[in-house]
Amino acid sequence: MRKLKSWFGAGRAKPAAPDLPVDLLSDAFVADPAPTWAWLRDNAPLAPVKSGGYVMTRAADIKAAFTDARLGNAPSRFSMLAEKNRDRYVAADVAANIPPFLDKPRHVDMRKPLSAAFFDTFDGAEAWIGPLAEAHLARLAGQGPQDIITGFGRPFATQAMARFVGLDHDPAAIARATGALFKLFAPITDRAGFDDVNAGLEATRHYIAGAVAARHATPGPDLISHLIARGGLTDIEIGDHALLVLADGIENIEAAIAQVLIRLASDPDHLAALRAGEGDIAATVMEVLRLETPAQTIPRVVREAHERDGVQLTEGTPIFLALGSANRDPDLHPDPDRFDPTRDHSGVLMFGQGRHRCIGAPLGQMLVTQGARALVDRPFTLVTDPARITYHKRLGHRWPVDVLARID
To answer: φ, ψ for residue 89 (rounded to 5)?
Structure first.
């Protein structure tokens, strides 16, 4: 029945079979992962990945995996990020402090104060995030074609996150910090590249340590100050928590804002409805993110050897949960490839689930929604042909490149 729904649904052709192990960095996949996800869901729901490990693609399996005790967050003992390597590599020490790489009980010990401090900081943030988005977009008005990512999404998200976290607004330092952290979520195959990641994280810790010291002396309404006030964390742990929240709030956000602009420009009737106050901008954002999920996969690690979908999984094997596939699974979202902001978005898997849900999800949604609101409120023209938009070759992420628009 699943294959009948997928292959013979209205207007949908049977997707071509990808080579296995599947290459999540192939040109075809980077350009459009949806056909590969569709074939894998129907034919190989737990498929081997060329870079190592397996990718899980069915929504029901992914939702169940979040609570499966046989899967965990902590890196394999064979990984350079394993806790035993904390004294050797800065990257391993950072991973040992932040929830995405931790299992119980340390996961709870680190997540609880971070969650409390986050929501202390989040309260009232909308009052300044909206005006900040409008101010950044207004700078581009009348300036001719501008890259909406580097000209609007990135500077807006960078300044917003620096203020939220409690850092000096240093775009170069922030870019280096977020770039280094994101590389921890992909398989480490290049020793020279790993050395660069460690150097980047070392410099980032120094940058954030200055902010932590300043907030000890003069607290503010920011995340670092709230983490200090909560107590129970070392300054290094506070800094690593700040880095995690900072990184989550920039690259994925700038990509999402660009995707919203592409969708609005491609659907003038819906854009006109939003401008007339007849649509829901937040629902529009959720539907765009369902279709073009910035974080396409998130990693888990096999903690206990077991059989799944006919595959014998050994301890330490990476498992990538394909959120981008789940969000287009017809068993979870009927007619999944159709843009429909009125659909039920409660089952969308974008920020994880349960205790594995991204703590910064409400802030991420707010940043993208306020960026979208600024675009709706100001006339714009998409200059780049949507059919020619390219994407970064980054494992697990769908980030567009060079989305040019003219802001009036």
So the answer is: -130, 135
CA angle 99, 366, 331 (to 5 degrees): 75
What is the sign of the dihedral through the CA atoms of 171, 159, 281 and 374?
negative
63 with 71: CB under 8 angstroms?
no
* 356 — pLDDT class (breaks 50, 70, 90): low
Burial class of residue 194 (count of CB atoms within 10 Å of its CB; 0-12, 13-18, 19+):
middle
How sure is the predictor about 191, in pLDDT bands with cuts at 50, 70 and 90? confident
CA distance 41 to 61: 10
**Using alpha carbons only, what angle is made at residue 291 by residues 165 and 163, rounded to the nearest 5 degrees?**
10
3-state secondary structure at position 207: helix
Statement: the pTM of the whole predicted model exceeds 0.70? yes
For residues 250 and 261, what is the distance between their CA atoms, to the nearest angstrom? 17
Helix (H) or strand (E) holding 54: strand 54-56
Domain count, the chain: 1
* Residue 188 confidence (pLDDT) above 90: no
**β-sheet with 46-48: strand ranges across:** 46-48, 54-56, 318-322, 297-302, 71-72
Contact 170, 158 (CB under 8 A): no
pLDDT surpassing 80 at residue 65 = yes
Q: Provide the greatest CA pair distance for the chain.
A: 64
**pLDDT, mean of residues 183-204:** 89
Structure tokens belonging to residue 126? 């909308």
Q: What range does the domain containing 397 cover?
A: 2-407
What's the CATH code of the domain at 121?
Answer: 1.10.630.10
Q: Can you tell me the distance from the alpha carbon of 222 to that of 144, in angstroms, rounded to the nearest whole number?
A: 36
Beta strand 145-147 with 404-407: parallel, antiparallel or unpaired? Answer: antiparallel
CA distance 31 to 246: 27
d(CA 395, CA 271): 32
Name the CA radius of gyration of the chain, rounded: 21
Q: Do the beta carbons of residue 251 and residue 244 sit within 8 Å?
A: no
Q: Report the candidate in 195, 194, 206, 283 with the shortest Cα–Cα distance to residue 239.
A: 206
